[in-house]
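Chapter review: from sequence to fold.
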Amino acid sequence: MLRVRPVLFTSRLDEYAALLTALGLACTENHGGWRVLDCGDGKVGLHRAERDSPQDGTTAPGFELRDRNIFVRRTLADGTHAELVDSDHGPAARVTAPDGFSFLADPVTDLASRRPGALAVVQLWHTPDVDAARKVLADIGARPLPPRPVGSAVFRAKNGGLVALLPAGASGAGLALEYDGGLAALGARLAAAGVPAAQGRGTLDVQTPCGGTLQVFAAAAG
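The C-alpha cell string follows.
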C-alpha cells in the first residue's frame, strides 16, 4: 500500500483548503491546524505554519502506507535507505535518497484503492540526480509510467497519486495536479468561484493564496 500525500505548510490554511476544494478535492480530515484533502488519486496535507516563517509556503514530500515495519524492511532489501522514526506527528518511516534528500511515509488506516477520476495529485521531486531518484521510487514500490506532460520521469503510487522527477541543481519538493478534462472549462469554473487562473502551454496556472502558482497539467492516458 502506497499513496502520495505531499504536505503544504501555510499560514493561509483556510484559503488553501478552499482553493483545493474548488479544484475538486474533498476534505477527509480536519483537525484545525492539520487537514487532508483527497481526490481519490492522491491526497494533499495542509499544515498550519506561522505567517512569514521559513516554513510558510513550503511543501514537504510525503506518502501514506499501511505497515511501516514491512515498508522499511522491503525498501532496505531493495537497496534504498529507510528507517523507523518518531516524527513530530507520530511513528513514521523515513526514506533517504543518496544525496541526503529525505521524506516521510506515515501509517494510515485508509487502505482504499486508487479511485481514478478527473484529478490526480502530483508530487514534484526536484533533484540533481534523476536516475538515483528513479531507483528510490522503484524501491519504495512506485511504478514508472511513460512520459507525461508533467514530466518525462513519472511514477504512480499503487493507492493513488503521481511523483514527477524534475532535474534541478538542488533537491526540493512541490505540488501540482493533473486534470482529465478540458483545462479551459476548469479555468472557467474556477473563475466563477472567484479563483484566478490563466491558461498556459498545456497547463492551467492557478493563483495560490500566497501569490504563487499551482500548475494543473492536462492528464495523459494510463
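Two observations follow directly from the output. The chain has one domain: 2-111+118-218. The chain has a mean pLDDT of 96.
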